[in-house]
Specification:
It is a single chain. By secondary structure, the protein is α/β, with parallel strands linked by helices. Helix content is 36%, strand content 16%. It has one domain: Alpha-Beta Barrel (TIM Barrel). The chain starts with 7 loop residues before the first strand and ends in an 8-residue tail after the last helix. The model has no long low-confidence stretch (mean pLDDT 88). The structure holds zinc ion. The site of zinc ion has 5 residues, from loops. Exhibits 3'-exonuclease activities and apurinic/apyrimidinic (AP) endonuclease (in vitro). Show preferential AP endonuclease activity on double-stranded DNA substrates and 3'- exonuclease activity on single-stranded DNA. GO terms for molecular function: hydrolase activity, acting on ester bonds; metal ion binding. It comes from Salmo salar. Belongs to the metallo-dependent hydrolases superfamily. TatD-type hydrolase family.
Amino acid sequence: MATMDGGFVDCHCHITAYEFAEDLEDVIKRTREAGVKTLISVTEELSEFERVIQLFKSYPDLVAPCFGIHPVQGCGSHDQHSVKIQDLEPALPLFQKYRDDIVAVGEIGLDFTPWYAPTSQEREEQLTVFTKQLQISKDLDLPVNIHSRSAAKVTIATLKEQGKPSVAMEGVQAGYFFSFPPAVCRNDQKAKLIKQIPLEHICLETDSPALGPEKHVRNEPKNISLVCEYIAHVKGITPQMVIHATTDNALRLFPKIKRLE
Ligand SMILES: [Zn+2]
């Protein structure tokens, strides 16, 4: 298998987020300088789809685009709401149009936080949107990138029903992958989990601009090296070993990113 020696794969980041709009070129420069070879760039709303494709065209060796309609729409706006089927419908043709370019379907899932989804109708509608996108991922033969909050049971049940492996606590035995963002460095509770999970099942992500090493400070893909060093430290191995293994894992999980090399 091809490997990208010395290069990181950030398995989950939001490069189309408005937080990056003003200085994206600098962010990309720092990303490259930090040795990141691939940014798996998830989306949450239709309005980001063309943008992530545009970034893929601007940085074809770096940006690996994903399409997804998140369970919570309108983040950071006054119109934040639980996802509706109308949020997905206009996106459907784009999944087809760009089926060769996208490397995964995400970020999709369920968010049953009472604040977002107080009624069962809202939860049902989230489930419909989630299930439809799982079907798309099967049709397009793509992996999925999952968001789950206050909905672990239903999320796992739905994934199983749809015959999808998931990045979930259910297990290393089932061939699932676990990925950790820089925020783990400030939460020692995760050290035990990192110790238990074999390196062959770990990926690195930043979830930038969220989940950075410092609270309330914008996260960037370059911070992936901090996660790498932390995992190396916890496991008592070299950062090189962590880079090598996690990049191999990312290539297994997202086979289409090989073409970016
Ligand atoms: Zn995310």
